[in-house]
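To: structure subgroup
Subject: Chain for Friday's discussion

All,

I'm putting the inputs and outputs inline so they're searchable in the archive.
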Amino acid sequence: MKKHKIKVVFICVHNSARSQIAEAYLKSIGKDMFEVQSAGLEPTQINPFVVEAMKEEGIDLSKKQTQSVFKLFQQGALFDYVITVCRDSEIKCPVFPGITKRLNWAFEDPESFHGNNDEILKQVKKLRDRIKVKIQEWIIQVKI
């Protein structure tokens, strides 16, 4: 009998950084246990600093597209977990049908990082590492 994959969507405002990082790590670390997507309230393009930081981890986001959370909602997508990864998205996020657990992991927005390119990349790497730890901890909780 095939085991049900846990369906997860990560949501942030632009689907350009935090949600993309979380999706990539859950796919990578969670392997076949999860079916994962990410989406944004106002999708833009993936942050180039995020692409660079994730490349260090062996994850290529250079060709990854952003998508609208409202398009997923309109398609009738069902998720076991809807996880917002920023403060703004939790309030504006549509309520998905079905039995969905909603979580909010409020990470800072890389668009607010200041400094030269090296300093911004360093901040993005710290954010990336915090998201990775959160994903690792959450996978353990879900397996229990």
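Points worth raising on Friday:
Strands lie at 6-12, 34-40, 81-84, 101-104.
The domain at 6-143 is CATH 3.40.50.2300 (Rossmann fold).

D.
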